[in-house]
Write a structure and sequence with these properties.
- This protein is mainly alpha-helical.
- The chain folds into two domains: about 5-150, Rossmann fold, CATH 3.40.50; about 160-239.
- It is built from eleven helices and three strands, in the order H-E-H-H-H-E-H-H-E-H-H-H-H-H.
- It has helices at about 5-10, 30-45, 55-65, 75-85, 100-105, 110-120, 135-140, 160-175, 180-190, 195-210, 220-239; strands at about 15-20, 90-95, 125-130.
- Helix 9 packs antiparallel against helix 10 (about 195-210).
Length: about 240
């Protein structure tokens, strides 16, 4: 949804500015450091939007500096949202891997209360992706937690269809100017099991091997692709 061409297909306004935050980057950060990280990502991503006037990005950056981001990061982020709204931007903050925040021992309940307050007082919204149901995350935070988790309309996403999986792999290969034999594509699809993340991981394992072998893959390379895919999966589990 952050890509302009996707928004155009859905008839969404150009004045909507998406800021993508991977919550894995917030691991071990306290709430002040989280505010600062979110601020920085909003400014950087808005400034890089082709549809946004460069002067708007500069004003956002100035607002954060004047808001005392080092001393009062919450109020600085609040100021940033005010200035965004004043400049006609509707911010949508995409929080990926959100369950990581819910499990964080570094964050207090007031952090989630603050997040909940922003769309109430400003023209902004959240788009949250979580592997765990949000009502489950609310129970994890405890009965005293802010009802941040119940302000969303849940949409359950299932795996891709086989055709969608193939289209994703082919599109990524075309973007990388790579051509794989059909048996390699079939191997990627099998390893990816119709899950977007795993399809990309399997494709990257194949792409690495393709580069290392002079842009040539044979049937015997499929086993090497599998080993690399499974090896990275174990590494991710350890992390």
């Amino acid at each position: 949804m952050a890509h302009p061409h996707v928004r155009a297909k859905r008839g969404l306004a150009e004045k909507q500015a998406f800021a993508y935050i991977d919550c894995r980057s917030l691991i071990n950060l306290d709430q002040g450091e989280c505010y600062k990280h979110i601020q920085g990502e909003i400014i950087q991503q808005v400034k890089n939007m082709a549809a946004v006037d460069k002067a708007v990005g500069a004003r956002l950056e100035k607002a954060v500096q004047e808001g005392g981001w080092e001393i009062a990061p919450f109020f600085s982020l609040d100021t940033l949202l005010q200035v965004s709204e004043a400049n006609g931007l509707r911010l949508i903050i995409s929080l990926d891997n959100f369950e990581i925040l819910a499990y964080s021992s570094c964050l207090k309940d007031c952090f989630f209360s603050a997040l909940r307050s922003f769309p109430i007082t400003h023209q902004m919204a959240y788009l949250v992706a979580s592997r765990h149901p949000l009502d489950e995350l609310e129970r994890i935070r405890g009965p005293e937690a802010s009802p941040f988790f119940n302000i969303f309309q849940p949409i359950t996403l299932g795996p891709f269809t086989s055709e969608e999986s193939r289209r994703l792999v082919i599109a990524l290969l075309e973007r990388a100017a790579a051509r794989f034999p059909e048996f390699v594509i079939d191997s990627i699809l099998e390893l990816g099991n119709r899950e977007p993340y795993n399809l990309q991981r399997a494709g990257y394992a194949a792409f690495e091997l393709w580069q290392e072998n002079g842009k040539d893959l044979q049937m015997e390379h499929c086993e090497e692709i599998r080993q690399r895919f499974e090896g990275k999966e174990k590494l991710n589990c350890v992390r």
